[in-house]
Design a protein that fits this description.
single chain, 275 residues, alpha/beta, Aminopeptidase, nine-stranded mixed beta sheet, 13 strands, globular, N-formylglutamate amidohydrolase, N-FG_amidohydro
Length: 275
């Protein structure tokens, strides 16, 4: 993996180079093994939190971890094109628009002892801005090469705090073209429902059951590109003990292994339908 500047990453994409890179501010990674008509993203995978923010932050390290999406990058790491965040959403949230990306409160609790100085907030927002410059360049290149593109936007959610039964997988589709892509969305839901997990973990997949796909990442791409479908794909945190901060690597591995088969199969079907 190379450490590259924003300018170098954008030039590599424009010139269709293959590369593994981390941004020179260590805010995100991008792997391109091959240019294909689909991409995977794990924008809430990151847990880094700038040290200069520590003393001012009211939330504990565990409280931050609880709301992040650990292991989502590992679930998609085997695919040819993977974009992932390295920083915690508590520094800036890549799934919120720039005006709301730096939290003042988080999940009903004040985040900072003292309001963030403008300079610290600006440093975080610059990372957000640079990330979306790369997203725009990448999807532009894929649409230019293939005409269409599908993005698998991987997230996780805390299922144990719901007071009803919730699905293992949830697809949020309220901000995408369901009329045009409805069959493709349903096909992805069916693939997810066929994934088998260890320990007899119940396997269900539903659409707009727990989340509706209101994230900025999906909205930014959908608004900017007419022929790219973003599938906001949430897995319940059955792959960890969300109250004791323990990851179950055998469950993560099972998800990765099966997505290795189903995800490219679905992407090829999408491409052949809409190219």
């Amino acid at each position: 993996m190379q450490k590259l500047s924003l300018k170098e990453i954008l030039e590599h994409i424009e010139n269709e180079k293959t590369f593994h890179a981390i941004a020179d501010d260590y805010s995100f990674t991008l792997k391109i093994d091959e240019y294909v008509p689909y991409a995977c993203a794990a924008i809430h995978n990151g847990h880094q939190f700038r040290k200069e923010l520590w003393d001012n932050c009211i939330h504990s390290e565990y409280e931050r971890w609880y709301e992040e999406d650990p292991e989502t990058k590992n679930m998609i790491q085997s695919h040819p094109l993977v974009l992932a965040g390295c920083d915690s959403r508590f520094e800036y949230d890549l799934n919120r628009n720039p005006e709301e990306a730096v939290f003042e409160t988080a999940w009903g609790k004040q985040l900072w002892h003292q309001p963030l100085p403008v300079a610290m907030k600006s440093k975080s927002l610059k990372k957000h801005e640079n990330f979306y410059k790369v997203v725009h360049a990448l999807i532009s290149k894929l649409e230019e090469k293939f005409g269409v593109c599908v993005v698998y936007d991987m997230h996780s959610y805390n299922w144990q705090r719901w007071d009803r039964e919730v699905p293992t997988w949830n697809l949020g589709t309220s901000n995408i073209d369901n009329e045009r892509f409805g069959d493709c969305i349903e096909a992805w839901r069916e693939y997810l429902s066929s994934i088998k997990l260890p320990h007899n973990i119940k396997q269900t997949s539903r659409i707009n059951d727990t989340f509706q796909g209101n994230g900025y990442f999906l909205k930014f791409i959908t608004k900017s590109f007419k022929n790219t479908l973003v599938l906001a794909t949430e897995i319940a945190k059955v792959y960890c003990d969300e109250y004791n901060q323990i990851i179950y690597p055998e469950v993560v591995s099972a998800v990765e292994t099966q997505l290795k088969e189903y995800l490219p199969k679905h992407a090829i079907e999408f491409y052949n339908t809409f190219k």
